[in-house]
Design a protein that fits this description.
The complex is a heterodimer. Chain A is an all-alpha fold. Chain A has two domains: about 55 residues; about 200 residues, MetI-like fold, CATH 1.10.3720.10. Helix content of chain A is about 75%, strand content about 0%. Chain A contains eleven helices and no strands. In chain A, helix 1 crosses helix 2, helix 4 runs antiparallel to helix 5 and helix 9 runs antiparallel to helix 11. The model of chain A has no long low-confidence stretch (mean pLDDT about 85). By secondary structure, chain B is an all-alpha fold. Chain B contains 13 helices and no strands. The N terminus of chain B is likely disordered. The chains are: A mainly alpha, B mainly alpha. Chains A and B meet through helix 1, helix 5, helix 6, helix 9 and helix 10 of A and helix 3, helix 4, helix 7, helix 8 and helix 11 of B. Chain B: Belongs to the binding-protein-dependent transport system permease family.
Amino acid sequence: MSRVMPVLVVLLGIVALWYGAAVAMNAPWARDQAARAGTPLSTGQLIAATMVQERPVLPAPHQVAKGLWDGIAGQKITSKRSLVWHGWITLSATLAGFAIGALAGAALAVAIVHSRVMDLSIMPWAIASQTVPILAIAPMVIVVFASAGVTGLVPKAMISAWLSFFPVLVGMVKGFRTPDRMQLDQMHSWSASRAQAFFLLRLPSSLPYLFASLKVAVAAALVGTIVGELPAGATAGLGARLLSGSYYGQTIQIWSALFAAAGLAAVLVALIGLIERVVLKRMGLAR
Amino acid sequence: MTRYGEGGARPGALILGLAVLVLVLAANRWWPGSGLLLFVWLAGWAVNSRLAHYEGPISAMLVPLIFGATLLASWEIACASFAIPPVILPAPSAIGAAFAANLPLLWGDFVQTILKGALSGWLIGAALAVAVAVLIDRSPFLQRGLLPIGNFVAALPIVGIAPILVMWFGFDWQSKAAVVVIMVFFPILVNMVAGLKATDALARDQIATWSASYAQALVKLRLPSAMPFLFNGLKITTTLALIGAIVAEFFGSPTRGMGFRISTSVGQLNLALVWAEILVAALAGTAFYGIVALIEKRVTFWHPSQRG
């Protein structure tokens, strides 16, 4: 309870601030409307008017909640207005890219740990690439793939794979290197082969690093997919929902898509956290 | 005096060389142009595997450089010999030419996006985060409430807030700076709060025996010892700042800026210019990170990680 209380209080504070900001930011439009209609507004009426606008500058929390609820439960999930449908488009590309990127990153990490040439050649570039805003080229990747006739899930998955590749690579190399000299010597004195040393010592001791980097990677993969859905022409996915909302000034639609994306990210990270806890517990590594 | 032991390796190397030659020729016949590619790749790799046997800083610097050069050469050769259309992948030489020919344009985009959008937003966001961290420093309740939320928000696709902020603050750099402020705020806040807690009990006791006030303890002990944590947050967020500023331009911008240039040049299939912008972004990202790391070195010279 002592852990939940502060979070709840802060969340309530944020919601209160949000309502205050909604009133302040939507008031000019409401006043404008009232002035045009020639009817004076009392303060209470003004506040009420800021809560129910069609295209508010800042939708009130309950409007976003309603938009989110309509998007998730109010439509058939095959409808183009359904957030479940758009979310699924985004999620499938994210998961496909995440799987490819994580597997490739882990495989390359294995090679790097066992080969000094690979280590010296690739690691500096992998680390330097973290300072490059790769995400910014996502739309270009989409357009290039489209001009080659490839559209839909594959290009977005490529971006997600690229973004989730590096965190996993760097994390896994670090993880495979956690066993210290003494433990490696111990394996050696048991005359363990390289494969045995890898599967019995390096792999298990890398798992905490694996899960930490997987959490970063899945969040990055989701951001990559959403940005990949931004170029004009994309009609499906949460990113396309954001973009069409911003074209037509449908603020409630933008905020709903944003919260749907946030929820998706939270679920994905929590899922990996859950797997982490189960796996580490079974291996006796839980802290 | 026969030096048989040393000479013995030569026939082996010769056979290997012949085998490589046959392989290269075979590949070239099977798929024209791939022979040279394979040869460059194998040569680069051979040099690197030789160099990797030597310990020391020189090989540690040469090997990645040679790998990068091999990669670039393969890219160039592949573009030339497979006739890859420049609307799909321009050759490095074409990108270099586009970079050199458009320097004023690229500089204008750099000023608009990096200096005005990303840098100002990053500075404001960092200042806000440090201020909030110091303000909530005396309230464990607020810390317990804000930290889980901060960690949660750090994993969210915040970049999606860009369309909203572009609506609020207009198309110019102010909206980009606003996106950057929000993107960098939470990672820096979380790091700074952790940093303010990072004094050891001995130092705290010491400063208490000197009867230092809260403000004195904060300025003389806790802020300096929070610096490594703060710089960790600052370094993580340099890339985020660039991403935020560039992606926000996809939702609307004046007719300059890196994001604007990337999206319009893609539309015109002028991919060489797009890649030149990416080169600028990469250089800017690396330089930004490098400068912050340099300042960190000057500020936290006392920290074990800096005393290599």
